[in-house]
Amino acid sequence: MPVPVEGHPSAPGPAAAIPAAPPERRARDPYFDNAKFLAVVLVVVGHAWGPLQGVWLVDIAHLFVYSFHMPVFIVIAGYFSRRFATTPGKVRRLVVGLAVPYLIFEAAYPLYVSLLGGKGFVWSPLSPYYLTWFLLALLVWRLSTPLWQQLRRPLLVAVVISLASGAVQLPDPVVTRTLGFLPFFVVGLLLTEDHFRLLRTRPVRLAAVLVAVAAAVAAVLAEPHVSPEWIHYRYPDAQFGVSPPVLLAARCAVLLCGFAMTAAFLSLVPTRRTWFTMLGTASMYVYLLHGFVVLGALYAGWYTWVNRLGTLGGLGVLTVLGVLLALVTASRPVRWAFRWVVEPRLDWAFRAQVPVGGKP
Q: Assuming Cys at both sites, which of 1, 133, 156, 221 could form a disulfide with 128, CB separation 3.0 to 4.6 Å?
């Protein structure tokens, strides 16, 4: 069965003898953990729906959710990349948090599928497999942060690159996707705390509800006429068989919809600490691990049983199971069991860091 193809000198004198107080650690904002968990739940649910694509109701839900769930992740990633610099500490975190997990899961997924009965195992780190594309894209985006912070009009440049990426044939769909989603990362870099405070005001939240309703209606109306590939940014626009002006208008519309729905989603996210806030700290576990369950169910033929429930029943069951899967993969036992691959301890691989003006 095919695999669905598809994320920081003291002056001399008496005072110098007084040890400095350690810097106060800033409290973690529950808002962003809430946003990450809710967004990753949508990712899991969307992948759970994947094998049922082609059914009208599923395709509408797919079109609605996929228009913003990855943009939300990418905007948040951009926001937390604002202070990224190629200092030893930041580089180590980049290697440990993205590069090494990418290499591990980029090998683990094709090996897993080959064991399930798919085609033979092929490891190709430059051609990401299934959901691992996001780690490689995030690595590229984060490394490019200093460039975007030097440009006068970074968002304009990013949008032009995104539009151009759909007009040419690039060597791999992941390259097209990385460039296509680029404006969302750059927007994240440009956001400030004031922007998020504005999003959480009552008038904006009321507007966000209207935007979400309008997007749902648009998904219903557009589904018969729009390929889901428009919102995946995977392939060149030429494959859609329409004129260049229509291609340009469609890509601009997809970007605008992604921005509007991302703003609406972030506006409606709870700001207080909730029962799922702590689970948001484990969003990378959910993202990287849930795919094994989805692929296992696919190859085991479980979707044949789901199809017997009918469109509405199958969609409902898969949605509930997707939420449960997100909860399980974010749980403490799962994090304990898989920390060695998602957050590997690689202190042994790096030189000891030398404090400024001191010895290691």
A: 133
What 3-state DSSP class applies to 105? helix
DSSP string covering 247-294: HHHHHHHHHHHHHHHHHHHHHHS--S--TTTGGGGGHHHHHHHHHHHH
- 47 touches 5 (CB < 8 A): no
Q: How far apart are CA 176 and CA 16, in angstroms?
A: 55
Task: Identify the segments of the chain with pLDDT beneath 70.
Answer: 1-26, 85-88, 237-238, 349, 351-360
pLDDT tens-digit series, residues 24-78: 456 788 999 999 999 999 999 999 998 887 788 899 999 999 999 999 999 999 9
pLDDT for position 9: 34
The whole-angstrom distance between residue 115's C-alpha and the CA centroid of its chain comes to: 27
Q: Is 348 exposed, middle or buried (0-12, 13-18, 19+ CB in 10 A)?
A: exposed
Q: What does the pLDDT read at residue 169?
A: 78
Comparing C-alpha atoms, which of 108, 60, 63 is closest to residue 295? Answer: 108
Cα–Cα dist 130/105, whole Å: 10
Residue with tokens 């609605």: 64
Q: How far apart are CA 254 and CA 232, in angstroms?
A: 10
Whether the model clears a pTM of 0.85, i.e. scores above it, the answer is: yes
Q: How distant, in Å, are the alpha carbons of 133, 137, 236 from that of 177?
A: 9, 8, 10
- What CA–CA distance (Å, rounded) separates 69 from 167? 24
Torsion sign across C-alpha atoms 181, 56, 241, 1? positive
